[in-house]
Specification:
The complex is a heterodimer of chains A (314) and B (456). Chain A has 14 helices and nine strands. Chain A has 314 residues and is an alpha/beta fold. In chain A, 37% of the residues are buried. Chain B is built from 19 helices and eight strands. The radius of gyration of chain B is 33 Å and the shape is elongated. Classes of the chains: A alpha/beta (314), B alpha/beta (456).
Chain lengths: 314, 456
């Protein structure tokens, strides 16, 4: 019997093609890591600065292989009740009400306390069974019949205790519920963890993962991304725009423009029917690209110079 | 090719990457899936399986280029080249000399001529492996390893032949010997190059790490000015590590004991059935540290280090008050947070340093204007030797300080045998301290502070 594989793509080239088809332009390194994560059934830990498309990668791979994306957004104080599973208290409560009435019938004829206990013993522990289990993202991903892509986003924002909880999932694709037992994945999900390196992750976690570092794309790749996302954009504008964004990233700005901001900016310019960048146009639309007041002021001032640099670069 | 991978992983380990057995298996599986070509794919596959984090990825890429470029140089010249002569005599790695002296010398000279560059590169790499050159730790070992490489290639036979030629005492013989010497020199130079590259790959990192360890374990007063730069880096790393370990935990709320009243209250909603258990949240205080640092002449040798440490701590602990004292006490928090470590240390020493210590007056200076900084959440950290130049130690104030603070920890650079000798009043202070530790090395200090922060 062959099991459904974690990743249905048979080669690195297939990963590249599938990702490109949904508008994510991967580098060779990205495609290799994704392919290996699937082939070796290992979680993939993606690191890199904010805005390089780490989350987008997980979303795209889910779309590319047609599996649901189960996302677990990590934050301070995240615990197992919100990440793994919880009990359905309401349902348990309802059942107690019903059972209260039934219990008389059940114990009818049991004269002694021992006899009554004996009868109760014959029943399973209904309240803590699978029927009362509320699956949270991780359990949901494990139980997905066709497999899933499990995105554990910003894992560096959780506590060390939570990291320890993840270890079982990451190494064996299973969750142990004390009252029930171990739930093992039918199809191991493709697990993608992202981290902004807010804190050093534990060695145990790192050891269980493949690693991928994504940096900001070079001009060629960024142009390819924008072209994939904003198909209507003209070649001249595209070169100018990407050159400008690359020049901005080389400046000392506090928050570097992300890829999605580049895409947004391209969309904005397209809506404005621009066919090339002028200093005025840049100044008017810069708010799409940069969000910090101080960055905006600095870059607005440097716009003519940056445009010249961009023109020289492309 | 399998040994290629294990050799590469051994090099990575030597360069400081912690590659586990499981990761080695992953890498092997990845290579089995993808093959050794193209090079870019191999690099990406090995990076993703072996390197953790950006720094390691960089190291990996650097070593990958070194390792696989030198291997591919051999490529065409023959995969099955000289390494192991197949057959019954696969004994200890003494392949070459058995071939017969004549052949060995001829091959050596041929390699030295450099006509077959790829063949030479491959032979040298294999000789380096056989000579255990991956184990090189110090640059000074290069000569030794180069010699051992040449021995692998049969230099002893060449030398024997050389002597024989000299013994002929004919011009022809001398010319022949001269050619052999030239060949040996050329091979020696080539071998040294290979060794140097191996050292760059593995040894340099190991040397750095070794030096770090030396500095960490060296008594503080034996540290020289030259160690200071290294020390600064180590201390910063230590402070970071401490903050990583303790800072995070503070924010995580921990489950405490069962909260019976809250659980019962909750149970009313569900008809008295306690479905949802309520727990007390264990409250954690943020670390509040008041550090007092003796900067007088008697601890002059430790002062720089202590200040360096406070500087690092300042960056990591949110609520930290820093005081320095010798004859009087001053709040130096502003100086430390505003200036770079070296500059801050100089400023503090100029303003306060090298005077005669007066612990009594220092305590007056603290308990007077800064009394409010001490409350039951505060940990007071004293760094000093407790030598008060026979002035009144003001034990009453010290007792009050110990009483008011949550913990009082004294870290003393002097060994216990000197406590209480001469003008040391440490034993009198000791009774009020929660702990008194002798801190001799950087490692001691880290241990002491780890314990201190663990109490929050």
């Amino acid at each position: 019997m062959t099991r459904t594989p974690t990743l249905t793509l048979p080669s690195i080239e297939a990963v590249e093609a599938a990702l490109s088809a949904v508008g994510y332009i991967p580098t060779r390194a990205i495609a290799t890591s994704i392919y290996l994560a699937g082939a070796l059934e290992k979680p993939l830990l993606v690191e890199g600065p904010a805005g390089v498309g780490k989350t987008e990668l997980a979303r795209s791979i889910a779309e590319a292989i047609g599996r649901p994306l189960v996302r677990l957004q990590c934050h301070d104080g995240l615990d197992e009740a919100r990440a793994l599973y919880d009990w359905r208290y309401g349902k348990q409560l309802l059942y107690t009400q019903v059972l209260k009435e039934k219990i008389h019938d059940l114990l009818e004829g049991a004269d002694t306390l021992e006899a009554a206990l004996g009868r109760l013993d014959g029943f399973e522990d209904v309240f803590f069974s699978h029927a009362f289990l509320e699956p949270r993202p991780i359990l949901r991903a494990l139980e997905a019949p066709q497999g899933a892509v499990l995105l554990i986003d910003e894992v560096d924002k959780t506590s060390e205790e939570f990291e320890a909880l993840l270890l079982e999932v990451l190494s064996d694709f299973q969750v142990t519920v004390p009252e029930i037992g171990t739930v093992t994945a039918t199809v191991p999900p493709l697990v993608v963890l992202t981290s902004n390196a807010l804190r050093e992750l534990g060695d145990a976690l790192k050891r269980r993962c493949l690693h991928l570092h994504i940096g900001f794309p070079d001009a060629a790749r960024e142009a390819a991304i924008v072209r994939a996302r904003v198909p209507g954009i003209g070649g001249a504008l595209l070169d100018q725009l990407v050159g400008f964004v690359q020049a901005v990233r080389a400046e000392r700005v506090r928050k570097l423009p992300s890829i999605s901001e580049t895409v947004d900016w391209a969309r904005t310019l397209l809506l404005l029917h621009a066919d090339h960048l002028s200093p005025e146009l840049v100044r008017d639309t810069l708010g799409v690209l940069l969000k910090r007041e101080a960055d905006l002021a600095e870059i607005a001032e440097a716009t003519p110079r940056l445009l010249r640099e961009a023109a020289r670069g492309s | 090719m399998e040994s290629q991978l294990t050799g590469f992983i051994a090099t990575l380990r030597m360069a400081g990457l912690r590659v586990s057995a499981a990761e080695t298996i992953d890498a092997a599986r990845a290579v089995a899936l993808l093959g050794y070509d193209p090079r870019e794919t191999l690099r990406a596959a090995l990076r993703t399986t072996l390197a953790k984090g950006e720094a390691e990825a960089e190291t990996h890429d650097r070593l990958f280029d070194l390792w696989f470029s030198s291997v591919s140089a051999g490529g065409a010249a023959g995969e099955e080249a000289p390494s192991e002569p197949p057959g019954p005599d696969a004994g200890p790695a003494e392949g070459p000399p058995r071939e017969g002296e004549e052949a060995v010398v001829a091959r050596f000279v041929a390699l030295a001529s450099g006509a077959d560059r790829a063949g030479r590169a491959l032979a040298l790499e294999q000789a380096a492996n056989a000579a255990g050159a991956g184990g090189i730790r110090f640059e000074t070992q290069a000569g030794h390893f180069a010699r051992r490489m040449l021995e692998q290639l049969g230099v002893e036979a060449v030398e024997a032949r050389m002597m024989a030629h000299f013994a002929e005492r004919t011009p022809d013989g001398e010319a022949a010997a001269g050619r052999l010497i030239a060949a040996r020199t050329a091979m020696m130079a080539a071998a040294r190059q290979v060794i140097q590259r191996r050292f760059e790959a593995a040894g340099r990192v190991a040397t750095e790490r070794f030096m770090d360890e030396v500095v960490e374990e060296r008594p503080l007063d034996a540290l020289s000015q030259a160690d200071l730069a290294r020390l600064q880096r180590l201390v910063a790393r230590m402070a970071r590590r401490l903050a990583d370990r303790h800072g995070r935990r503070l924010r995580a709320t921990r489950r405490g004991r069962l909260d019976v009243p809250a659980t019962l209250k909750r149970a009313f909603r569900s008809d008295g059935i306690p479905f949802e258990l309520r727990f007390r949240r264990r409250r954690r205080d943020r670390p509040r540290i008041v550090a007092l640092c003796d900067v007088s002449g008697s601890v002059a040798r430790h002062v720089r280090f202590l200040l360096l440490f406070l500087h690092a701590l300042e960056a990591e602990v949110a609520d930290l008050r820093l005081f320095a004292f010798s004859s009087h006490l001053e709040d130096v928090g502003a100086i430390v947070s505003a200036e770079a470590p070296e500059a801050a240390i100089t400023t503090i020493l100029r303003r306060l340093g090298m005077g005669a210590t007066d612990y009594g007056r220092a305590l007056e200076g603290l308990m007077g204007p800064h009394r409010a900084a001490i409350d039951r959440h505060t940990t007071v950290l004293v760094l000093g030797d407790g030598r008060s130049n026979h002035a009144d130690p003001r034990l009453d104030l010290f007792a009050e300080l110990a009483e008011g603070a949550r913990r009082l920890v004294w870290l003393c650079p002097e060994p216990p045998s000197l406590w209480g000798t001469g003008d040391s009043v440490l034993p009198d202070y000791r009774v009020h301290c929660t702990r008194l530790d002798h801190v001799r090395t950087v490692r001691d200090l880290e241990r002491a502070l780890d314990e201190l922060l663990a109490h929050y």
